[in-house]
C-alpha cells in the first residue's frame, strides 16, 4: 500500500496539508495500526516527494490533534485509546461543581437490525445495510445521568456481539480500537433539548415530560469516515455539558 498525494487531496492545497491528508488516507487503509510506529520522517518525505520540513509540519499537526504521538528518541506512533485524560475529549458530562469521573455503564439492549433512514444518512450507508443498535445507561458518582442510544455499521464492526459490550475491559472506544481496528479521532455533536418519554423518565428518575439535554453525535475515524451514530439524553439536574476546556485548541 503506497498512498500518493495526487490521489487523496484537493488540488491547490498547501503541500503540508496534502501530506497530512495522504498520511490520514494511509491510516484509514490500515497501513499502520494503533500503537504502531510510522516510518521514519526521511522515508516518508521520500515517499511523498517533499522536504523534511514539509513532512514535519504535517506530522506536527497530526500530533497536535492526538492522531499521532511523538516519543523522544523512539519515533512517532499512531495514537491509541487508553483510560486517561483523553477519555474526557469525548465524554463531556460532569457534575455542576466541576468534578469529573468515569461513568459506570449498564447495557439495556442490543440488537442487529436494518439501518433506519436517519442512520443510513449519518453513517453513509446504502439501503438495506445492517447496523448494531444498543442502549447504554450511564451513572456518575452513583447517579443515573445519561442514556446512550448507539448505532454502529455492521460493515465496520463485523461479528460484534452483546458479550463484546458486556465483557469489555475498558472504554467503548477502546473496544472499537482493540477488537475491530476502528479508531475514533473526532466527533461532531449537536445539542438540543427534548422531553423525557416514559422509558427515559423511568431510567433517569425524572418525571415523564421533564426537560432533558439531547446530544446527537457522529463519531469519525480517519479521513472523516463516520463509524458511530448516537443520541444521548442527559438529566441535567446535577450535571452539565462542558463544551471544551478553556486551554483547548480553538478556545
From TrEMBL:
SUPFAM superfamilies: Chorismate lyase-like, Winged helix' DNA-binding domain
Residue stretches making up the HTH gntR-type domain: 13-81
Keywords noted in UniProt: DNA-binding, Transcription, Transcription regulation
InterPro entries per UniProt: Bact_HTH_transcr_reg (IPR050679), Chorismate_lyase_/UTRA_dom_sf (IPR028978), Tscrpt_reg_HTH_GntR (IPR000524), UTRA (IPR011663), WH-like_DNA-bd_sf (IPR036388), WH_DNA-bd_sf (IPR036390)
Pfam families, alphabetized: GntR, UTRA
Organism per entry: Achromobacter pulmonis
GO biological process: negative regulation of DNA-templated transcription
The keyword Transcription belongs to this UniProt entry's keyword annotation: yes
GO MF annotations, alphabetized: DNA binding; DNA-binding transcription factor activity
Protein name from the UniProt record: Putative fructoselysine utilization operon transcriptional repressor
Amino acid at each position: 500500500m503506497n498512498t500518493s498525494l495526487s490521489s487523496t487531496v484537493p488540488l491547490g492545497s498547501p503541500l503540508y496539508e496534502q501530506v497530512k491528508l495522504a498520511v490520514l488516507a494511509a491510516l484509514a487503509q490500515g497501513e499502520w495500526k494503533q500503537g504502531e510506529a510510522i516510518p521514519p520522517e526521511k522515508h516518508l518525505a521520500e515517499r511523498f516527494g517533499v522536504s523534511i520540513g514539509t513532512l514535519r509540519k504535517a506530522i506536527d499537526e497530526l500530533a497536535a490533534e492526538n492522531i499521532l504521538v511523538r516519543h523522544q528518541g523512539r519515533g512517532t506512533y499512531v495514537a491509541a485509546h487508553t483510560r486517561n485524560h483523553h477519555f474526557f475529549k469525548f465524554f463531556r458530562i460532569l457534575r455542576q461543581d466541576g468534578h469529573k469521573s468515569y461513568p459506570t455503564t449498564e447495557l439495556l439492549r442490543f440488537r442487529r437490525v436494518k439501518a433506519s433512514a436517519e442512520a443510513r444518512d449519518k453513517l453513509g450507508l446504502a439501503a438495506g445495510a445492517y447496523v448494531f443498535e444498543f442502549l447504554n445507561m450511564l451513572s456518575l458518582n452513583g447517579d443515573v445521568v445519561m442514556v446512550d442510544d448507539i448505532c454502529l455499521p455492521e460493515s465496520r464492526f463485523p461479528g460484534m456481539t452483546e458479550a463484546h459490550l458486556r465483557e469489555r475491559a475498558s472504554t467503548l472506544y477502546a473496544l472499537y480500537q482493540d477488537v475491530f481496528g476502528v479508531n475514533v479521532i473526532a466527533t461532531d455533536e449537536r445539542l438540543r433539548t427534548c422531553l423525557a418519554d416514559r422509558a427515559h423518565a423511568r431510567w433517569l428518575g425524572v418525571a415523564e415530560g421533564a426537560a432533558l439535554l439531547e446530544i446527537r453525535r457522529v463519531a469519525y475515524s480517519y479521513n472523516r469516515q463516520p463509524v458511530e451514530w448516537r443520541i444521548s439524553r442527559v438529566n441535567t439536574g446535577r450535571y452539565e455539558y462542558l463544551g471544551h476546556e478553556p486551554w483547548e485548541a480553538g478556545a
